[in-house]
Amino acid sequence: MEFASLDFETTGLDPKRDAVVSFGVVPVRRGRVILGESVYREVAPAAPLKPSSIVVHGLRPMDLEGAPGMDASRDALRVALDGRFVLAWAAEVEASFLATVFGGRPAGWGRRIVDVLRLAVLADHLDGAAGRKGGYGLSAAAGRYGVPVERPHHALDDALTTAQVFLVVMPRLVPRGYGTPRRLLRAGRRS
């Protein structure tokens, strides 16, 4: 199985009003992160940057001057995801923006995305450690699993962190019957 860990940074969380400002994709093949094939793009957003989003991802209007728009970046994203199951942390956001970028419905995209956040919750539940102290933010979960976090809310770094958490959680899930894409996709859609 090949996976592509995806993270978007955006002007906000509403895909009807907000836009992508950057994306990172990190391939995972045969249980290994393939950093040499990672893709990172900054994108000139089709919606204005909000001060609240700048505080989160740190990308300012001057940082995005000269960046291509999503129309020019779409092919790079398509190639990075093509033929791979998508990994994401809190997949609803990525599903919504994928629907905006490529068309379709968020629910349709959601069926292609393995939600690593939900896999981490499932693994903890199966291990009897439900409701972990510190919550399930990406940085908090990564810290519990011993995964380094370089720059939170940087699209490429968050995609890398998500991929690494996925690889740490999988050995806990595979012996319990979660070793196929179908089971991972299903598990990622459970509440």
Question: What can you tell me about this protein's structure?
Answer:
The protein is α/β, with parallel strands linked by helices and 191 residues long. The protein has one domain (2-186): Nucleotidyltransferase, domain 5 (2-Layer Sandwich), CATH 3.30.420. Helix content is 46%, strand content 17%. It contains nine helices and six strands. The protein has helices at residues 51-57, 61-64, 70-81, 91-102, 106-110, 116-126, 138-145, 155-173, 181-189, and strands spanning 2-10, 20-29, 32-33, 39-42, 85-88, 113-115. Strands 1, 2, 3, 4, 5 and 6 form a six-stranded mixed beta sheet that branches. Helix 6 (116-126) runs parallel beside helix 8 (155-173) and helix 6 packs across helix 9. It is globular, with a radius of gyration of 16 Å. 39% of the residues are buried. The mean pLDDT is 93.
* Weakly predicted, low-confidence segments: none
The CATH homologous superfamily corresponds to Ribonuclease H-like superfamily/Ribonuclease H
Report the helical percentage.
40-55%
Rg, Cα atoms, Å: 16 Å
Q: Tell me how many strands there are.
A: 6
Main β-sheet description: 6 strands, mixed
Helix-strand makeup class: alpha/beta
In the CATH scheme, the class would be Alpha Beta
**Percent of residues in β-strands:** 15-25%
Q: Which terms summarize this structure?
A:
single chain, 191 residues, alpha/beta, Nucleotidyltransferase, domain 5, six-stranded mixed sheet, 6 strands, 46% helix
